[in-house]
Every structure is written in structure tokens, then in C-alpha cells.
UniProtKB/TrEMBL annotation:
Keywords from the UniProt entry: Hydrolase
Cofactor requirement: Mg(2+)
Protein encoded by which gene: nadM
Annotated InterPro entries: Cyt_trans-like (IPR004821), NUDIX_hydrolase-like_dom_sf (IPR015797), NUDIX_hydrolase_CS (IPR020084), NUDIX_hydrolase_dom (IPR000086), Rossmann-like_a/b/a_fold (IPR014729)
PROSITE patterns: NUDIX (PS51462), NUDIX_BOX (PS00893)
Pfam family, one: CTP_transf_like
Domain Nudix hydrolase residue range list: 214-352
Domain of life: Bacteria
Organism for this UniProt entry: Cysteiniphilum litorale
Name of this chain's protein: ADP-ribose pyrophosphatase
Gene3D superfamilies per UniProt: HUPs (3.40.50.620), Nucleoside Triphosphate Pyrophosphohydrolase (3.90.79.10)
GO molecular function annotations of the record: hydrolase activity
Length: 359
């Protein structure tokens, strides 16, 4: 491996080039961008997005798995790892400023106020909006390498059970993307996500002939009692075995609050009378991130309900719930980001902050 001489590094325009992606999985298009960034900067900071999320067909691999794959593939590609920094970035669906601040804080661990920083990226579509989120950083534009798209790769991976080797770095190390993916295809976790992929494909096919793409309306209940949050474990796809807020689709003939209370009782047996609502319903919020559900455009109406009693009410899993439990809200926020369905962790974090649920 040949390292750049110190004088060559000094001639570079930037101290750091920031490359943001989900890397699900890492592929030769990403490698192309990193090589290009290293031509312009002394070091490349790779920010792995959607870190600490529950596994899904969009985000199957953990931050730790992706970090290991990237480092192994870069080493196999003769990249000087001393010029590579890797950091995680969480999703902040309902707090864009929070996401920007976290990304900047990750970079500022290494860069000081006098550092010259650029962000690497190709402005391909709306998903590239983040390139304009950091006006203090310059932009290093790159072409989309052979139109490679990790989404297309995952379709073949989960639908056709095919590894498209054209995407992957030739690397025989067990921690590299190729070997990791080959091993993963032999696991029960892979088969579960293949089943989920089929479910979502069939679900979308059921309304593909509609004159307009439908917008689905759901309800969720965020129920708190004595600093504990009520959660259900899902029995079926999507999100089978993941934890979630009690909820479901709104019926045609009911109001939002009625849907919230109905789904809550159907899944947990916890019944709240309509006359109790003025004292227990603290707030209602709408959560409408376009990518919040893989099933399509799903907008949910959340009811924040607090129960006054000290004793946690008895609950029993029913309907779509495999299990139900009360969990300390602190523990949910600190330990459960990678086992909550869809955007439910982001919802809980948003509501906790806005309504100061932890004091």
C-alpha cells in the first residue's frame, strides 16, 4: 500500500470530505465515491445513516455490520484506512435540525473550526436533499457509478435470492460485504425478511390498479402510566416480532379518537372510556413522513394518553399482538431503538421531547 507523501496531502483542497449513506449494502459505487473524495481531501469521514434501526428490507444490517463490511472492503481495495473515519448517524424523521446537528457533531469530533470540509454526493433525486443541509461545507459532485442503486440490489437479494456480484467488491474476508451477505442468506433472519418482502409486494399489488395511489390512515396510542410505556409485539408481517405502539387502520365509519381507543383495547385489552378522555388524553399528533412505512403512504394519528394511577393496569395480548408489556420510558429511549417497528422510536423520541415526558 502506497501512502501519500505529506507534501501531497498539504496540496489537497480539503481537510475532510464527508460521505453520507446507508450502505445497505456497501458496493462498488460507494467505493468509487470514496476514491474520488480521497483525491480531494486528506481524510474521508463516512457517516452511516439509519444507524440503530430495527432490521427491515430497506435496512437489513446493523451499524456494526455495515462498519465491518466497509472497513474490510476498503482494505481489500488498497485504501489507506488511516485516511478513513466512520461514524453512525441516527434517523430523526420529525426533527430535521436534530439530524443535521448530530451529523455535524460527528464530523466536529475530528474537524475544528479552521478545517476545510466538503460533502461528497451525486444529486440524483429527492433523496439527495441532505447535500444542501450543510451550507458551510463545499460540495464535491460525483457521477452515479454505472447507475448502481442499492435498492435494485436489495430487490434481487430478497425477491430473487440472488447476489448481484457486479455490485460487490471482490473480497474473500469473512467481514467483507460478499462473504457477509453469503453467510446472511443462510440465516433465519434473512428468510424472515424475504417473507416480509413478499408480503409488502403482494400488499402493494392489491391496490396497484387504483386510479390514484392510496393514502392510508392509521391510529396509534402512546399510553404512559407511572413513567412506563405500553408496547405490543407484532404477531404478523410487516414488522413481525418487532415492538410497536398499539394501533392499526382507521375504520371507514369512526373518528380518529375512536380508532385510537378501539385499537388499544383490541390489542391490549386496556379499555379507556370516552368520558375519561378529557382527563387522560394529553395530546394528538399527526406523523406523516413519506418513508415512515414500507407498505406505502401511511399517515398515522397518535394519541398521547397518561393514566393517573400508580399501579400499572393488567394487559393481555390480543388480535395482532403477540405480546404486550409495560416498559420504563427511559429504557425504551435508551435500549430499544433497534427493535421498534417503522418510525415508532422516532415518534416516541419526538413526543418525549415535545411534551417533556421525562423530567
Amino acid at each position: 500500500m502506497v501512502s501519500l507523501k505529506q507534501e501531497e496531502l498539504k496540496r489537497m483542497k480539503y481537510d475532510y470530505a464527508v460521505f453520507i449513506g446507508r450502505f445497505q449494502p456497501f458496493h462498488v459505487g460507494h467505493l468509487h465515491n470514496i476514491r474520488y473524495g480521497l483525491l480531494h481531501a486528506e481524510k474521508v469521514i463516512i457517516l452511516i445513516g439509519s444507524a440503530f434501526r430495527a432490521p427491515s428490507i430497506k435496512n437489513p444490517f446493523s451499524y456494526e455490520d455495515r462498519r465491518a463490511m466497509i472497513l474490510s472492503d476498503l482494505k481489500a481495495s488498497d485504501i489507506d484506512l488511516e485516511r478513513i473515519i466512520i461514524e453512525p448517524v441516527s434517523d430523526w424523521f420529525y426533527n430535521e435540525a436534530g439530524w443535521r446537528n448530530e451529523a455535524q457533531e460527528r464530523v466536529e469530533k475530528y474537524a475544528d473550526k479552521d478545517s476545510h470540509i466538503a460533502i461528497i454526493g451525486h444529486q440524483k433525486d429527492a433523496s439527495s436533499y441532505y447535500l444542501k443541509c450543510f451550507p458551510a461545507w463545499q460540495h464535491i459532485d460525483v457521477t452515479n457509478f454505472d447507475d448502481f442503486n442499492a435498492t435494485d440490489f436489495r430487490v434481487k437479494f430478497f425477491k430473487d435470492h440472488v447476489l448481484d456480484s457486479d455490485y460487490l467488491i471482490d473480497n474473500e474476508d469473512d467481514k467483507g460485504s460478499l462473504k457477509t451477505l453469503q453467510s446472511y442468506m443462510q440465516t433465519a433472519s434473512y428468510q424472515a425478511l424475504c417473507d416480509e418482502f413478499d408480503y409488502i409486494e403482494n400488499y402493494k399489488a392489491s391496490w396497484q390498479d387504483a386510479p390514484f395511489k392510496p393514502v392510508f390512515v392509521t391510529t396509534d396510542a402512546m399510553v404512559l402510566c407511572n413513567k412506563h410505556l405500553l408496547l405490543i409485539q407484532r404477531k404478523q408481517a410487516p414488522g413481525k416480532n418487532l415492538w410497536a405502539l398499539p394501533g392499526g387502520f382507521l375504520d371507514q365509519d369512526e373518528r380518529i379518537i375512536d380508532g385510537i381507543l378501539r385499537e388499544l383495547e383490541e390489542e391490549t385489552t386496556l379499555s379507556i372510556l370516552s368520558e375519561e378522555i378529557p382527563q387522560t388524553l394529553i395530546a394528538q399528533e399527526v406523523f406523516d413522513h413519506p418513508d415512515r412505512s414500507l407498505r406505502g403512504r401511511v399517515i398515522t394519528h397518535l394519541g398521547l394518553i397518561t393514566l393517573p394511577q400508580k399501579e400499572l393496569p393488567q394487559v393481555t395480548a390480543q388480535d395482532d399482538a403477540k405480546a404486550v408489556k409495560w416498559v420504563k420510558l427511559d429504557d425504551v429511549l435508551e435500549k430499544m431503538s433497534d427493535c421498534l417497528m417503522d418510525d415508532h422510536y422516532q415518534i416516541i423520541k419526538f413526543m418525549t421531547s415535545k411534551y417533556k415526558l421525562i423530567t
